Amino acid sequence: MKRLLCASTFLLASTFPLPSFASGCGSVSIADMNWSSATLMAHVDKFILEHAYHCDVELVPGDTVPTTTSMVEKGEPDIAPELWSNSAKELLENGVKEKRLRFAVQSLSDGGEEGYWIPQYMVDKDPSLATIEGVKANATLFTHPEDDSKYAFYTCPAGWTCQISAGHIFDALQLKKSGFEQVDPGSGAALAATIAKAYSRQEPWFGYYWAPTAVLGKYPMVKVEFGKGTDAKHYQECITQVECKNPKPIMWPPSKVDTVVTESFATRAPDAMSYLSKRAYTNKQMNNMLAWMEDNQADGEMAMEEFMLKHKDIWSTWLTGQALQSVESAVNQL
């Protein structure tokens, strides 16, 4: 049947020229990374490329460094929807320099986000708590789970790289002088549980977290402002290092998260490349989808269907003309 369809398409094309969006894409491989936001992106891209641009799409397992290496050395897969660029910076830079790779778009438009957070309901009651000075002035709100004489700051779990940066910034902000003590939750799941518990009781909470995550999709949090801006050089050379003698109280610089494609794909499929250059998610949008995935134990395909059915306001901005009409028609049949 597939051969018959292909033959029919060829005969039609020879008699009646097809719209440009339907040609020049061919077979496309997309890296399906093993974390929720990346697998959602991969499945959304597959659906849109198939229905808008008539690509023959295959999802292949992927991970940051192996996928980047394969794209540079073998020219496959064609697309990596979510690459945390700093994790393979040298590989990516060399691939672009050698004209093997091309950056399509920053797939998380806000970048990966880290910081100190408190619950939205606390800021609603007292807007000053959105600043570190406000948190310090109200330190007594943040009761310590084991020591009544101290106040709790929930830090990144031991062994995680972020424990180093969170600890240095804790020192730079001189939070110990305000009575705070770093509380190691023991694991990522335990850290998430402290937020869930605080929310269920509408209690104060102060600590480190990151986005995009299901946790920040379920529990609205406000990132505390330090008022010092950021300094990427100091962050790399001091804040992320075990030894950092004079840490500055800077905000975390956003982590660059990109969609990367092979140069051969970008050249042979300009219409599909145009779509990818517009396709991006904010952290808020992704947080909400990750929360839905967790609540529904959804895989990438299920999440794609939910996204396409419920969020036309987002994906319709990535498409125009016949491509948009074709995707709308396909969504109506989900």
Short note summarizing the structure:
The protein has 16 helices and ten strands.
Flag low-confidence runs: 1-23
Largest sheet: 3 strands, antiparallel
The CATH class designation of the largest domain is Alpha Beta
Number of domains: 2
Under CATH, the homologous superfamily of the largest domain reads Periplasmic binding protein-like II
Secondary-structure element order, N to C = HEHEHEHEEHHEHEHEHEHEHHHHHH
In the CATH scheme, what's the topology name of the largest domain? Answer: D-Maltodextrin-Binding Protein, domain 2
Structural class: alpha/beta
Instruction: Please tell me how large the radius of gyration is.
Output: 23 Å
**Could you tell me the number of beta strands?**
10
Relative strand content = 15-25%
CATH architectural arrangement of the largest domain: 3-Layer(aba) Sandwich
| Count of helical regions | 16
Strand arrangement across the biggest beta sheet: 3-10-4
What distance lies between the first and last C-alpha atoms, to the nearest angstrom? 22 Å
The shape is globular
What's the helical proportion of residues?
A: 40-55%
**How confident is the prediction overall: mean pLDDT?**
92
